[in-house]
Design the sequence.
C-alpha cells in the first residue's frame, strides 16, 4: 500500500468514526424535534452535526456524503430561520438521510448513486412543494419505506477506553467522552489479558498474609527464647561459672537480642510492603475492571429510533423514556443484553401499546409511553421495562393454553395470574393468530429468558389489566467476577454463585424426614429434597460426625434442592477464570477461580447440577446422607504423583484421581517432581513431557537409573500424539502413553487401574 493509500485509509476510518458520533446526535435531535419542532437548541445541534459531516465528507472526497449532508443542512437552516415548520414527513426524510450518511461511511454497504439522486430529489420536493413533483422510482420507494441502521464494522474487536490525560483542544481525529477525556481504541483481547493479570496480581499479594503471620509467630518464639535464656541466667548465678561460660552466655543473650531487633525491623518493613502492594494491586484490578465497563447508553444506540419507527409502521404513537443511561456495565454483558432488550421493546410496542383511537376511548393520551430504567442493586444490574398499554389479556392466555393442549380446560380455569404469565415464556407460545413482520412466528419471550439465563440472571413479568405491564430483569454487572459462597466438599473448595442461592442453613438430625424413600426438610412451607454435594461432585463422602448438617438451598426457576456440604468457608468475590477449552464441558462446573491464599476453587454450574440431581433421581441412584459419620478406619490408599506445568491439567487430573479414592500429590515441573520422588514414596508417576527446568523424558530417564525408583510405574500424558512422540516416551521407560488430544476422564482412570489397580491397597 502506497503512503497515499495509507493516508486515504486512515482518513476514511476517521470519517467513519465521526459519522458514527454525528449520526447519533442527529437521531436524538430529530426525535426530540418531532415532539417539539421549534426547539432552538436541538435545531442548532442537528444543523451543526450535518454541517460537520458535510465538511468531513468533502475533505475525504466522498461526494455522495457531501450531497446528502448539504440538503439536510438546508432543511435544518430553513427551520432555524422560520421559513419551514418541520412536519412528520420532514423528520422521516431527515432520519432517512441520517441512515444514508451512515451507509456512506460504511464502504461495505455504500449506497448506489441512484439512491443519492433519489434522496436529493425527495428533499428538494419537501423544501419547495411548488417545484415539479418527483417521479416515484423503486429506489425512492425503498428509501421511503426503509430506514436501515447499519453499524460500521471495525477491523478487530475493540473497546473505547477513557484515559485521565486531558486533551487541551480536541481535534477532529480525537474521540472524547462527555468529561473531556481522551478515548483510545484498545482490543478486547488485550483488556481481557490485563484484567486477568491484575486479578492474579491481587491474589499473589494476598499470599503474603500467611507469610507475615508466620514471621510474627517466629518473633513471639524468639521473645519466649530470650525470656527462657534470662531465666537460665538467673538460675546459673547461684553456681560458680568459669569466665568462658559467662562470656558464652552473654554472647548468646546478645545475639538473640540483636536477631530479635533485626526481625522486628524487617517484619515492620515487610508488613508495610505487603500493605502497599495489596493497595496497588487492588487499584490496578479496579482500574482494569473499570476499563471493561461501559455506560448502559451504549446498548441503547438506535433503540429510541427503533421504537418510534415501529410505532409509526403500526399506526401508533410511542415514546421511549430512558433512565440510568450512565449506569456502568461490563461490555460483555452489554453485548448480550442488546438482543433481549430489542425483543422486549418491540413486544411492548406491538402487544402492549394501543392505537391512538383505543387509548382515547380509555381516557389515555394518544401517545403511548415505554419506560426503561437501569440501576445498580447489590452487585446486579436491574432493568425495569414498563409500558402504559393494555397489559396482558389473561383470558386469551387461558384459551391459548387450552388450544395448544398445554393444560386441560378445568386446570387452566384455576390457574392464577402468576401461573398464567409463566406460560408466555414457553417456547413457541404466542398470542398472535397470524404471522406478521413484528410477531407471531413463535419466537417469543422464551428467547429473552434463555439469553438472560445465559447471563446468570432472571426475568419476571408483572401486569395490571388495562394499565400496562412491567418486565423486571436482574443480571450481573460483570461476567468477570462473581459473588459466591465458598464451601468445602470432600476436603476441596467449591463456589456456589449467590444469584442461585435461596438460603444457607444448619439442619439438626430431627429436621430431616423421609418422604417416598428420599430425604427432605421443611423450607418455607414445602418439602425440599436433600442431596449430598459429595455424590454430585464425585467427592469422598464426609466423615464429619457433627450434630448439624450444613446445607445450601439452591434454586433455578421452580426447581429447588438442598445440597449438603461439609463446611461454609464464607462469601467471596471471585475473579472468573475460564476452563481450558480442550477440557470441554466439565460436569457441574462452569469455571475456576483463585482464593486469597492462591488455592484453586471450582465454580459450580447450578443449572447443570440440578440436571444431575434429576438424572440421579430418574436412575434411582440418589444416596442417603448419613447423619453420623463414625466408620471404621479405611485401608491405606495408593499414592500417585502428578507432574504437569499446566495448572488446569494438573488440577483436573488430581481431582479425577482423588474422586476415585487415590491419594494424590502434584509437582509443577520435572525438577519439582524429581525432588518429590526422592523424598516420598509413590505407587505411580503421571507426567507431562514439555515442562520447564526438566522435561518429562529427562525425569523418566533419571527415574529408571535410580535403584529405588526404577520399578515405579510411569504414565506419560502429553499433547504430542504423533507415533514418534509416543515411541520416544515409551523408549525412555514409560509404561503407558496417553495423548491429551484424546484425553477424557475414563481413559485416564482406566489406565491408572490397569497399571496399579484400585485405590485401596
Sequence:
Amino acid at each position: 500500500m502506497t503512503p497515499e493509500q495509507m493516508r486515504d485509509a486512515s482518513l476514511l476510518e476517521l470519517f467513519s468514526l465521526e459519522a458514527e458520533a454525528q449520526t447519533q446526535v442527529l437521531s436524538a435531535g430529530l426525535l426530540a424535534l418531532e415532539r417539539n419542532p421549534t426547539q432552538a437548541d436541538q435545531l442548532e445541534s442537528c444543523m451543526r452535526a450535518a454541517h460537520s459531516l458535510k465538511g468531513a465528507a468533502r475533505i475525504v472526497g466522498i461526494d455522495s456524503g457531501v450531497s446528502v449532508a448539504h440538503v439536510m443542512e438546508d432543511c435544518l437552516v430553513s427551520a432555524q430561520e422560520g421559513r419551514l415548520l418541520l412536519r412528520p414527513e420532514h423528520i422521516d426524510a431527515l432520519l432517512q438521510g441520517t441512515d444514508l450518511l451512515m451507509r456512506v461511511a460504511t464502504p461495505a454497504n455504500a449506497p448506489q448513486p441512484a439512491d443519492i439522486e433519489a434522496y436529493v430529489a425527495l428533499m428538494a420536493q419537501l423544501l419547495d412543494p411548488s417545484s415539479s413533483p418527483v417521479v416515484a422510482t423503486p429506489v425512492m420507494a425503498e428509501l421511503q419505506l426503509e430506514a436501515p441502521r447499519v453499524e460500521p464494522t471495525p477491523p478487530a474487536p475493540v473497546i473505547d477506553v477513557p484515559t485521565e490525560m486531558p486533551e487541551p483542544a480536541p481535534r477532529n481525529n480525537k474521540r472524547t467522552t462527555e468529561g473531556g477525556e481522551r478515548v483510545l481504541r484498545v482490543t478486547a483481547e488485550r483488556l481481557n489479558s490485563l484484567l486477568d493479570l491484575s486479578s492474579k496480581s491481587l491474589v499473589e499479594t494476598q499470599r503474603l498474609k500467611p507469610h507475615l503471620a508466620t514471621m510474627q509467630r517466629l518473633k513471639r518464639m524468639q521473645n519466649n527464647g530470650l525470656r527462657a535464656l534470662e531465666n537460665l541466667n538467673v538460675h546459673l548465678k547461684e553456681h560458680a561459672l568459669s569466665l568462658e561460660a559467662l562470656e558464652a552466655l552473654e554472647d548468646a543473650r546478645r545475639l538473640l537480642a540483636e536477631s530479635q531487633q533485626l526481625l522486628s525491623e524487617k517484619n515492620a518493613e515487610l508488613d508495610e510492603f505487603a500493605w502497599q502492594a495489596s493497595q496497588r494491586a487492588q487499584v490496578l484490578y479496579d482500574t482494569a475492571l473499570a476499563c471493561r465497563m461501559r455506560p448502559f447508553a451504549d446498548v441503547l444506540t438506535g433503540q429510541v429510533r427503533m421504537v418510534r419507527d415501529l410505532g409509526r409502521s403500526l399506526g401508533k404513537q410511542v415514546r421511549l423514556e430512558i433512565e440510568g443511561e450512565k449506569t456502568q456495565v461490563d461490555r460483555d454483558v452489554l453485548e448480550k443484553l442488546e438482543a433481549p432488550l430489542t425483543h422486549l421493546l418491540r413486544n411492548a410496542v406491538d402487544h402492549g401499546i394501543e392505537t391512538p383511537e383505543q387509548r382515547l376511548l380509555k381516557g389515555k393520551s394518544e401517545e403511548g409511553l415505554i419506560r426503561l430504567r437501569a440501576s445498580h442493586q447489590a452487585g446486579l444490574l436491574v432493568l425495569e421495562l414498563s409500558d402504559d398499554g393494555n397489559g396482558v389479556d389473561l383470558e386469551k392466555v387461558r384459551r391459548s393454553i387450552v388450544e395448544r393442549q398445554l393444560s386441560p380446560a378445568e386446570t387452566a380455569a384455576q390457574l392464577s395470574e402468576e401461573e398464567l404469565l409463566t406460560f408466555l415464556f414457553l417456547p413457541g407460545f404466542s398470542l398472535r393468530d397470524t404471522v406478521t413482520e413484528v410477531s407471531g412466528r413463535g419466537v417469543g419471550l422464551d428467547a429473552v429468558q434463555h439469553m438472560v439465563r445465559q447471563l446468570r440472571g432472571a426475568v419476571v413479568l408483572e401486569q395490571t389489566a388495562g394499565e400496562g405491564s412491567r418486565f423486571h430483569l436482574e443480571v450481573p454487572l460483570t461476567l468477570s467476577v462473581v459473588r459466591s459462597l465458598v464451601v468445602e466438599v470432600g476436603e476441596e473448595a467449591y463456589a456456589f454463585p449467590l444469584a442461585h442461592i435461596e438460603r444457607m442453613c444448619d439442619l439438626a438430625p430431627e429436621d430431616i424426614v423421609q418422604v417416598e424413600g428420599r430425604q427432605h426438610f421443611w423450607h418455607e412451607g414445602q418439602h425440599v429434597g436433600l442431596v449430598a454435594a459429595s455424590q454430585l461432585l464425585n467427592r469422598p463422602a464426609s466423615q464429619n460426625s457433627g450434630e448439624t448438617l450444613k446445607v445450601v438451598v439452591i434454586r433455578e426457576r421452580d426447581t429447588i434442592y438442598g445440597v449438603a456440604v461439609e463446611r461454609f468457608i464464607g462469601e467471596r468475590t471471585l475473579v472468573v477464570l475460564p476452563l481450558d477449552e480442550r477440557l470441554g464441558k466439565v460436569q457441574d462446573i462452569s469455571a475456576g477461580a483463585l482464593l486469597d491464599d492462591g488455592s484453586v476453587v471450582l465454580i459450580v454450574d447450578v443449572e447443570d447440577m440440578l440436571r444431575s440431581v434429576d438424572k440421579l433421581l430418574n436412575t434411582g441412584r440418589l444416596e442417603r446422607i448419613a447423619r453420623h459419620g463414625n466408620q471404621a478406619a479405611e485401608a491405606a490408599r495408593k499414592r500417585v504423583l502428578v507432574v504437569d506445568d499446566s495448572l488446569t491439567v494438573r488440577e483436573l487430573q488430581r481431582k479425577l484421581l482423588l474422586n476415585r479414592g487415590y491419594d494424590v500429590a502434584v509437582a509443577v515441573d520435572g525438577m519439582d517432581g524429581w525432588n518429590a520422588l526422592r523424598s516420598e514414596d509413590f505407587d505411580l508417576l503421571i507426567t507431562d513431557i514439555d515442562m520447564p527446568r526438566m522435561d518429562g523424558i529427562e525425569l523418566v530417564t533419571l527415574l529408571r537409573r535410580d535403584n529405588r525408583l526404577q520399578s515405579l510405574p510411569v504414565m506419560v500424558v502429553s499433547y504430542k500424539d504423533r507415533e514418534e512422540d509416543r515411541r520416544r516416551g515409551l523408549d525412555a521407560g514409560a509404561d503407558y502413553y496417553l495423548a491429551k488430544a484424546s484425553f477424557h476422564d475414563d481413559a485416564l482412570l482406566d489406565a491408572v487401574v490397569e497399571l496399579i489397580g484400585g485405590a485401596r491397597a
Summary: Confidence is low (pLDDT under 50) at residues 1-7, 133-159, 163-174, 628-634.
